[in-house]
Write a structure and sequence with these properties.
The complex is a heterodimer of chains A (about 290) and B (about 220).
Chain A: H1 2-11, H2 13-43, E1 53-57, H3 63-75, E2 79-85, H4 87-98, H5 103-108, E3 117-122, H6 127-138, E4 143-148, H7 151-192, H8 194-203, H9 207-245, H10 260-289
Antiparallel strand pairs in A: 1-3, 1-4, 2-3
Helix pairs in contact in A: 1-9, 2-7, 2-9, 2-10, 7-9, 7-10, 9-10
Chain B: E1 2-11, E2 15-25, E3 30-34, H1 41-48, E4 56-61, E5 64-65, H2 74-78, E6 81-85, H3 96-105, H4 111-124, H5 140-152, E7 158-162, H6 170-185, E8 189-193, H7 197-203, E9 206-211, E10 214-219
Parallel strand pairs in B: 3-8, 3-9, 6-7, 7-8
Antiparallel strand pairs in B: 1-2, 1-4, 4-5, 9-10
Helix pairs in contact in B: 3-4, 3-5, 4-5, 5-6
The chains are: A alpha+beta (about 290), B alpha/beta (about 220).
Chain lengths: ~290, ~220
């Protein structure tokens, strides 16, 4: 069966290449969209889920002061919800999310000097309403600083959101094209072998015996496309990392760096999607045109 | 071995291919199906192979109601039925022995079985010297022998022949009929649709005549008309 599959792949070389390349391009777009999403979420981790401002506390805040601030937050009618992040967690976040590749920075920082904080989601999202609530905390004893989700961060998110949706949309459309191309390749392969298929049915070859080579062929195309896509995503991330490592890059972009683990995760996902697209495309072709 | 109970088949809702056809064919019989083109002979054969489904009535093959066969059991059933055609349906890019071996390969027979059975069957049909020829290098009669070898290599219980001599000259046809007779003598039930008056009249076997989809005659040791 493997031999049959290989022979089919050769017979339809141009169409096969077209399918594989389309899948590759579409999956690299999807991969880059995912990469971007990871990067942005790394960079804006603290501002997830509608957190609009953060109340940083003095690292050496007393229990009494802490209780007062907490009471204030709980009583406030303008606050939807909040989350307390202690020194332990802040320290981890600082090391892993913000400066994962910069041990020289993290070595300078110890857990004791990192402030605990409250992340606050207000009820009303207008700038004035947030300002009123946020500034109310600035003067409380034990509060070090109140940081608002600045315009900058919202701008980053909005801009990357648009880019991400465009890339994702293009990727999905191309993936659909890839599926249709695979379907068509398999249809051609079935057409090229219609005499053999007729004889196979006549002498009682099982349906799976007839189907499987075509399914394998489609899955193979999807997988090869996905492998190429994964390679280009990996390459893109490497290029970004190298660019970050060069001197003339803003420090803030460091936090966009995506770890190797994430890249492999995305690669695995792409391979899965590729195999799925390939097998679904060929299955549709096989069931429509083999009439098994 | 084969039994039809008032079988009706209508194509596209209007063309009546078979109407209330009933007959009973015993194991080891040799039956000619005669009638004009479009009288339903090919439909008769295609129904037995489950290439078509009847609109009404029941069909039994080897004691089983084939309408009740599960889809995945159909290939199993077809392994008990060999089929040959007017146009041979040989694969042009395979040699004689590859064509025959193909029928065994695709039903998963082990290689050593194929190695012994293919030469044996080619010996039976008289093509042992032409094993490595391609179909286009053979005469029509020889090509039909290859297709018979392919249909019979798996030792089916039934052989369905749809005008197997339709493309052959009379002398060659006689040779093909001898071969089919031999296969019948081994115990294989043979159902053959034909227009060949000479063959039917000389062999004097059971004749079922179809006219506009109806069985109008079923005669033991019959003639063409």
């Amino acid at each position: 069966m493997a031999r049959e599959t290989l022979r089919n792949l050769r017979r339809n070389l141009t169409l096969t290449l077209a399918s594989i390349l389309t899948v590759a391009v579409s999956l690299s777009l999807l991969g880059i969209a995912l990469l971007l999403q990871r990067g942005v979420s790394n960079a804006t981790d603290r501002w997830q889920d509608g957190v609009e401002f953060i109340v940083f506390l003095e690292p050496e805040i007393t229990d009494n002061q802490l209780g007062l601030v907490q009471g204030e937050i709980e009583r406030s009618a303008a606050i939807e919800s909040y989350r307390y992040v202690d020194q332990e967690e802040s320290y981890r976040e600082f090391n892993e999310d913000f400066f994962p590749e910069n041990p020289e920075i993290t070595q300078l920082v110890t857990k004791e000097i990192i402030p605990p904080s409250y992340r606050i989601i207000p009820k009303q999202l207008s700038a004035e309403a947030i300002e009123i609530v946020a500034s109310g905390f600035e003067t409380k004893p034990g509060v070090k600083k109140v940081v608002r989700a600045t315009d900058e961060i919202q701008k980053i998110e909005k801009a990357t959101d648009v880019i991400r949706w465009i890339v994702l949309g293009a990727g999905v459309i191309l993936l659909g094209t890839g599926l249709l191309l695979i379907l068509n390749t398999i249809r051609m392969a079935i057409f090229a072998r219609r005499r053999e298929i007729e004889v196979m049915k006549l002498v009682g070859a099982s349906n799976s015996f007839i189907l499987v080579p075509f399914m394998l062929e489609g899955t193979f195309q999807g997988l090869v496309g996905a492998a190429l896509g994964t390679a280009s995503v990996y390459g893109a991330n490497r290029a970004f990392e190298e660019w970050l490592a060069s001197d003339n890059v803003l420090n803030i972009l460091q936090s966009f760096a995506v770890g190797a683990g994430d890249v492999w995760e995305i690669g695995g996902l792409l391979l899965l999607v590729g195999a799925l697209v390939g097998s679904v495309g060929s299955a549709i072709a096989a069931f429509r045109f083999l009439d098994a | 071995m084969i039994k039809l109970e008032s079988v009706t088949k209508v194509y596209k809702g209007e063309v009546l291919a078979l109407h209330q056809a009933s007959c009973d064919i015993q194991k080891g019989e040799f039956v000619f199906l005669v009638g004009q083109s479009g009288s339903g002979k090919s439909t008769f054969l295609r129904l037995l192979n489950k290439e078509e489904e009847p609109d009404n009535g029941k069909i039994f093959v080897a004691g089983k109601d084939i309408a009740r066969l599960r889809r995945w059991r159909v290939p199993q059933m077809r392994r008990q039925i060999g089929s040959i055609f007017q146009d041979f349906k040989l694969l042009p890019n395979k040699t004689v022995s590859q064509n025959v071996a193909f029928a065994l390969e695709v039903i998963g027979r082990p290689r050593h079985v194929i190695k012994t059975q293919v030469p044996a069957i080619l010996d039976l049909v008289g093509l042992q010297t032409k094993m490595n020829r391609f179909p286009h290098e053979l005469s029509g009669g020889e090509q039909q022998r290859v297709s018979i070898a392919r249909a019979f290599v798996n030792r089916p219980l039934i052989l369905l022949a749809d005008e197997p001599t339709g493309n052959l000259d009379p002398a060659t046809s006689v040779g093909i009929m001898r071969l089919l007779e031999r296969i019948n003598e081994i115990g294989t039930t043979v159902v053959m649709a034909t227009h060949d008056r000479g063959i039917v009249d000389t062999m004097r076997r059971r004749v079922i005549e179809l006219n506009n989809g109806e069985i109008v005659r079923d005669q033991a040791r019959g003639v063409y008309e």
